[in-house]
Amino acid sequence: MNGFDPASVAVGDELPALDLYATRAAAVRYAGASTDFNPIHWSDRSARELGLDGVIIHGMWTMGSALRVVTNWCTDPARLIDYAVRFTSPVRLPDDDEGTHVRVTARVTEIVDETATIMIDARIPAAAEGEKDTKVLGAARAHVFIGEHA
């Protein structure tokens, strides 16, 4: 949809996909903004000591960044009523400039009383053919007001 039109929103509509790149630089910026300086977000040694494969991005960075698929679509973040996710897999951060690619897609699944339910899917695409994508958010759902503003 180009130019959000609340009256034309329909069940089954797919929102424009969003490609995110989680990098160590993003983790450092997010740590500063959130004051979450947990070393699993910047130290491979600390992350491995806790059983992780290495540094991971903050879950809230993933959650907030994935929501952009909805706010970019509806153009007015004030339309967002609520948003909930279940974290299914951490996003590991390689020690490079490219980071980890996370593909975010979303679809309108229900409309009730001027509220659209949007299901969001966030995955790390498979590295090789025959491998499976890694789902990073489960049961990610947003409710968006699609009525006329008062």
Describe the model.
The chain has a domain of 99 residues: Hotdog Thioesterase (Thiol Ester Dehydrase, Chain A, Roll), CATH 3.10.129.10. A five-stranded antiparallel β-sheet has the order 1-3-4-5-2. By secondary structure, it is α+β, with helices and mostly antiparallel strands. The model has no long low-confidence stretch (mean pLDDT 95). InterPro entries: Fatty_acid_synthase, HotDog_dom_sf, MaoC-like_dom.
What is the string of SSEs from the N terminus onward? Answer: EHHHEEEE
Shape, principal axes of CA atoms: elongated
Q: On the 0-100 scale, what is the average pLDDT? A: 95
CATH third-tier fold name of the domain at 11-22 and 59-145: Thiol Ester Dehydrase, Chain A
The CATH class name of the domain at 11-22 and 59-145 reads Alpha Beta
> Percent of residues in helical segments?
10-25%
Query: What is the terminal-to-terminal distance?
Result: 23 Å
Q: What would CATH call the homologous superfamily of the domain at 11-22 and 59-145?
A: Hotdog Thioesterase
Gyration radius, to the nearest Å?
17 Å
CATH architecture of the domain at 11-22 and 59-145: Roll
Structural class: alpha+beta
Number of strands: 5
Describe the largest sheet: 5 strands, antiparallel
Strand content: 25-35%
**What's the total helix number?**
3
Low-confidence stretches: none
Brief digest:
By secondary structure, this protein is α+β, with helices and mostly antiparallel strands. The protein has helices at 24-34, 44-49, 59-74; strands at 14-22, 80-87, 100-112, 115-124, 134-145. One of its GO terms (biological process) is fatty acid biosynthetic process.
